[in-house]
Design a protein that fits this description.
By secondary structure, this protein is mainly α. The chain has ten helices and two strands. The chain has a two-stranded antiparallel sheet with strand order 1-2. α2 (36-63) packs parallel to α4, α4 runs antiparallel to α6 and α8 packs antiparallel against α9. The radius of gyration is 24 Å and the shape is globular. The two termini are 21 Å apart.
Length: 377
Amino acid sequence: MDTGNVAWLLASSALVALMIPGLALYYGAMVSSRQILNMMIMCFSGASLVAILWVLYGFSAAFGTSLGGLGLLGNPLQYFGLDAALGDSTASGLPFALFAAFQLLFAAVTTALTAGSAAGRMKFGAWMLFAGLWATFVYFPVAHWVFAFDSEGVVGGWIANRLGAVDFAGGTAVHVNSGIAALALALVLGRSKTFGQPVRPHNRPLVLVGAGLLWFGWYGFNAGSALAAGTAASVVFLNSTVAACAGLLGWAMVDLFRTGSVTSLGSAEGIIAGLVAITPPVAPSRRSARSSSALWRASPAPSPSTGSSSSATTTPSTSSACTSPAASSAPCSSGCSPRRPPPTARPACSTAAGWACSAPRPSPWPRYSPTPSPLPG
C-alpha cells in the first residue's frame, strides 16, 4: 500500500466534503433572506440522507457486480452495510473504506446540487423523500454505468465498458445527472409565486465565498479522482485551475458586453461553469482518463510476491541483450526498443554505442480492487 496515495485521497475526500457547505452558501446567498436557512438545510440534510443510504446499499448498487451482466445496476446486497470495509485491505492499492468514503461524498454532493431547483418551493419532508428516492433509483444506477469497470469476475456498467465514454471525474454521473434531475423537479413543482419578478441575491459576498469554497473543493473532486499522487493528478490540478480562471474571465467579458459592467454574481457563475465543463475531459489523454477511472473498479490486487500495487516506483527490468558491449551494433532483444536516454532517465543498461535498452515500462497507474482482503483469522 502506497501511503502517499492514501494520504492524497484522504485530503481529497476532505476537500470534496468542503463542497457541501460551499454549495449551501452559494445557493443560500442567491435566494431571499427568508429562504436562506431552508436552502442551506436542504443541502446538508439531503447529503446526510444519501450518505446513510450509500453505506447500506448505495456502494453495492454502484460498484457491485452487475445484475444479470447487463451493466445497468450492481448487486445491492454485495457489500450491504459495508462490513467489508472493516477488513484489512493492505493487499490492495487503497483501503476499501477510504475508496467507499470518497465515493460517498460524490453521491452526497450530487444530491445537494439538485436542491437549488426547489428553493422556497418544497417542504422539508417532501425534499427528503425526493432525495432518498432519487439517489436510489437514479444516482446509484447511473454511477454504476459510469464508474464501474469490468475486472476479473466482475461485470461493470454499460457506459464505462460498452460505450467507452471518457468521464474522468464524474461529469456524467454528477453534473449531467443532477442538472437533469433539477430541471425535472422544477418542471414538476411549477412556477414560483415570484416568477417573472426581479429577485436579487440577498448577499452577494456570500455567493463569492460559496463559489470560492466550491473551487477549492473541486481540486479534491477532480485531482483526487486520479486516486494517486502523481503526474496525472498534477495535470488535472493544473487544468482545473486554468478552466476556473477562463470561466470567470469569459463570463466577465459577456457581462461587460451585455450590461457594460462586470458583476460579482456572473463571475461566480463563470467559475462554476468552467469547472463543470472541464471535469469529464480533465485528464491528459483518453488513455489516462480511462486508466484512472478504472482504478475505481480495477483489476484484482497483485500477489504478495509482486510487492506494492503501485507500479509508479517499480524499476523496470533490463534485457540481457543490453549487458554486453558486443550488442552495441545489434538490435535489442524482444520487448526492448533502442532509444537515446534522456538526462533524467532511470538507471538502464547502456551499450558501447551509447544506446539504452529497457523492458517495456509498466503503467504508472496503481491498481485498485474494491474486493477487500479477508479478516485475519
